[in-house]
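Hi support team,

I've been running sequence recovery on a batch of backbones for a student project. Most finish fine, but this one hangs at about 90% for roughly twenty minutes before it completes. I'm not sure whether the input is malformed or the queue is just slow. I've pasted the structure tokens below so you can try to reproduce it. Let me know if you need the job ID as well.

Thanks,
M.K.
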């Protein structure tokens, strides 16, 4: 596999910070990886294994020589030890309602060891080593917005008040001392406005200057990917409505317009669902645009003033489901499109909201949808077929309705399968559990389409991001949000591969996937495009913990830091 036109720095998400060691020869690059909200009316977070990364880079080397992926909150600051290969990392954020959540970690990048000086800590805004390297000074927010001594009616005072916390980072502390219990000293406060300001240039600008290049080439998460022919691949991401690449890495087309591309709909033809992001007071609004891919480019089919999620059947029909909560007297707001007849009709498929009703099956002989019981509910979900006249045909419940929370399916994804065993579907998802601390419980199974007979089933470690059928290899490929890639025998259900995906040796998450002629096209959370023959993946062995998915990475657009 040939490497083509890679990003300037590999293994990054949206770059949020850049810090340099005293010698200036190492850059600590902080980035945030996007959650799977693709399109906006779909959301899946269960078991997500990669959110924040600190990568260490040497000048001239595009791949980090060490990474730290263990934090659960945004990274605010990084401090280098004066003499040892250690870094102190401060993280945290306001939870939006009351608390300032935080993390303080110390990482030895040579040994890979890390430690937390405190069992619990509020948001860490700044952290530094003292000259000896044995003490850490950290400046933290109050525990909450009503902390003693602060005027909780003045938000500016709360944000400008930091507490100085000191942590032991001596060799004795590394030798096994238990994390300390933090008590904030009300007398040890400093004004955030009084701290020395960092370099005010944006992190991508600082990195470009450090690397000696005009600007960084980078790209956000791949939102969708599709084979457009034997040697063409289409991808959507936040920098375009649709990019088309040849398998040799050359970019054949770059389609831009209002918003970004969210879905590539595979039917009799190809459609692209674009999302328009509003400005000003309606900044959280996401309106939908439907485009048809023609020889002359993308042609706008329809504009929709709200969030929709689309699916396509092999005969060209499309179903658009509107993300909303239905109430008494609500009208049908879903839409059934038949481009061959240039027709659009309103239909009522029932309640639709993110987490609950996405199924993501396109290119099948039928239009599939999930529907609750009753149709205004998100519980007791059934797999349904939407007929050409708009009628909804219920097939069978996704999970056995035994009255437990486990019978509530969430964050689902499906794929149509047709082989010697007949027509069927593979569906993966999460068993609902309101307890945040409990272990994730998920499932993937294959069922006969008409009878609902289950042919095989496996537990899963995280919510699914993509599922595709490879008929030439008689396999089902499934990607999950903890980075797992599974290859399963479509008929017997035997796992042929169950491993974590890597590119350049770095852990990644597969957000989008498509198959053609025994090859998988994969789009990752770090903006990479990988094309891998399934035989090469199977060669890793079913017991391999990690699998290198290889890559074909075309030239991305220059990034605009946010």
């Amino acid at each position: 596999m040939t490497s083509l036109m890679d990003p300037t720095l590999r293994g990054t998400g949206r770059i949020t910070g850049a810090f340099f060691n005293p010698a200036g020869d190492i850059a600590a690059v902080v980035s945030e990886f996007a959650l799977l909200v693709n399109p906006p009316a779909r959301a899946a977070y269960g078991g997500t294994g990669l959110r924040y990364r600190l990568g260490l880079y040497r000048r001239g080397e595009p791949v980090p020589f060490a990474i730290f992926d263990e934090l659960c909150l945004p990274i605010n600051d990084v401090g280098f030890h004066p003499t040892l290969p250690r870094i102190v990392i401060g993280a945290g954020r306001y939870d939006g309602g009351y608390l300032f959540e935080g993390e303080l970690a110390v990482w030895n990048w040579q040994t890979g060891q890390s430690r937390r000086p405190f069992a619990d800590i509020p948001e860490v805004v700044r952290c530094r080593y003292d000259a000896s390297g044995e003490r850490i000074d950290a400046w933290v927010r109050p525990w909450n917005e009503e902390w003693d001594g602060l005027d909780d009616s003045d938000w500016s005072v709360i944000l400008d008040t930091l507490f100085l916390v000191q942590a032991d980072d001596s060799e004795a502390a590394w030798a096994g001392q238990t994390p300390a219990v933090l008590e904030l000293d009300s007398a040890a406060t400093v004004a955030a406005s009084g701290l020395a300001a960092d370099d005010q240039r944006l992190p991508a600008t600082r990195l470009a200057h450090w690397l000696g290049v005009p600007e960084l080439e980078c790209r956000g998460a791949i939102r969708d990917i599709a084979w457009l022919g034997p040697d063409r691949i289409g991808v959507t991401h936040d920098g375009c409505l649709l990019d088309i690449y040849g398998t040799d890495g050359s970019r054949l087309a770059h389609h831009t317009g209002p918003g970004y591309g969210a879905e590539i709909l595979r039917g009799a033809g190809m459609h692209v669902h674009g999302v328009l992001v509003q400005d000003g007071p309606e900044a959280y609004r996401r309106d939908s645009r439907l485009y048809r891919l023609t020889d002359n480019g993308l042609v706008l089919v329809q504009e929709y003033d709200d969030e929709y999620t689309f699916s396509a059947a092999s005969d060209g029909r499309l179903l658009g489901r509107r993300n909303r909560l239905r109430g008494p007297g609500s009208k049908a707001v879903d839409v059934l499109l038949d481009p061959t007849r240039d027709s659009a009709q309103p239909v009522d498929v029932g309640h639709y909201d993110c987490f609950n009703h996405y199924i993501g099956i396109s290119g099948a002989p039928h239009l599939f949808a999930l529907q609750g019981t009753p149709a205004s509910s998100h519980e007791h979900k059934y797999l349904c077929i939407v007929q050409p006249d708009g009628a909804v045909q219920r097939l069978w419940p996704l999970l056995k309705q035994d009255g437990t929370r486990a019978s509530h399916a969430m964050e689902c994804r499906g794929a149509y399968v047709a082989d010697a065993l007949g027509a069927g579907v593979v569906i993966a998802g999460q068993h609902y559990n309101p307890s945040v601390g409990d272990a994730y419980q998920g499932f993937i199974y294959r069922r006969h389409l008409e009878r609902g007979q289950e042919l095989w089933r496996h537990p899963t470690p995280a919510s699914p991001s993509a599922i595709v059928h490879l008929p030439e290899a008689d396999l089902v490929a499934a990607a999950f949000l903890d980075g797992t890639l599974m290859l399963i025998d479509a008929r017997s259900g035997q796992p042929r591969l169950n491993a974590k995906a890597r590119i350049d040796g770095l852990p990644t998450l597969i957000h989008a996937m498509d198959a053609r002629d025994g090859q998988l096209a994969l789009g990752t959370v770090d903006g990479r495009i990988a094309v891998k023959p399934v035989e090469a993946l199977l060669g890793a062995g079913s017991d391999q913990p990690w699998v290198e998915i290889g890559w074909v990475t075309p030239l991305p657009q220059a990034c605009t830091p946010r």
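--
Follow-up from support: It reproduced on our side and the slowdown came from queue contention, not your input. The longest strand covers residues 409-419. No action needed from you.
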